[in-house]
């Protein structure tokens, strides 16, 4: 069974559909590359996918350790290079709820070793900042 299907809709837009669930999203070419920029670009999905993967893997590890990271957020900044046009840098800034320092280290390691990180070309610089909330009553 396939993972997904992608349909070209015209005007540099695609619809991406997950085969198993039927969930879908649109992509648009970015404004700096002939597009309207009205949806994620294909390279946006790659950069965002890294944050998705990191948070998902952290969630799996957190559940195994019976701790919660519910409410965690990540802001993603993608930088493009030219000649060839490619992603040159992905910066992720995570805001996370308080967990013990031991669990912070465990979760950060888990994030940095996610499958998407290992799948990216080594020339793509990745910068990840983990901003953990302070312990309660401090």
Description:
The chain is an alpha+beta fold and 138 residues long. The chain is 29% helix and 33% strand. The protein is built from three helices and six strands; from the N terminus they run E-E-E-H-E-E-H-H-E. The chain has helices at residues 42-64, 101-112, 115-119; strands at residues 4-10, 13-18, 24-28, 73-81, 86-96, 125-132. Strand 2 (13-18) and strand 3 form a beta hairpin. Helix 1 (42-64) runs antiparallel to helix 2 (101-112). The longest helix has 23 residues, at 42-64. It is globular, with a radius of gyration of 17 Å. The N and C termini lie far apart (51 Å). The model has no long low-confidence stretch (mean pLDDT 96).
User: Total strand count, please?
Assistant: 6
Large-scale geometry: globular
Q: What about the largest sheet?
A: 3 strands, antiparallel
Helix content: 25-40%
User: Mind telling me the C-alpha Rg?
Assistant: 17 Å
Topology:
Blueprint: E1 4-10, E2 13-18, E3 24-28, H1 42-64, E4 73-81, E5 86-96, H2 101-112, H3 115-119, E6 125-132
Helix pairs in contact: 1-2
Which characteristics define this entry?
single chain, 138 residues, alpha+beta, GMP Synthetase, Chain A, domain 3, 2 domains, 3-stranded antiparallel β-sheet, 3-stranded mixed β-sheet, globular
Summarize the structure.
The chain is an alpha+beta fold and 138 residues long. It contains 3 helices and 6 strands; from the N terminus they run E-E-E-H-E-E-H-H-E.
């Amino acid at each position: 069974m396939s993972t997904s299907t992608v349909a070209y809709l015209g005007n540099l837009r695609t619809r991406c559909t997950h085969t198993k669930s039927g969930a879908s999203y649109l992509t648009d070419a970015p404004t700096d590359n002939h597009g309207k920029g009205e949806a994620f670009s294909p390279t946006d999905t790659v950069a965002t996918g890294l944050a998705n993967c990191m948070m998902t893997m952290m969630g799996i590890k957190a559940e195994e350790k019976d701790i919660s990271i519910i409410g965690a957020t990540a802001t993603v900044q993608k930088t493009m290079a030219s000649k060839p046009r490619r992603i040159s840098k992905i910066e992720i800034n995570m805001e996370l709820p308080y967990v013990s320092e031991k669990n912070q280290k465990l979760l950060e390691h888990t994030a940095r070793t996610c499958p998407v990180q290992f799948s990216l070309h080594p020339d793509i610089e990745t910068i990840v900042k983990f901003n953990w909330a302070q312990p309660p009553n401090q």
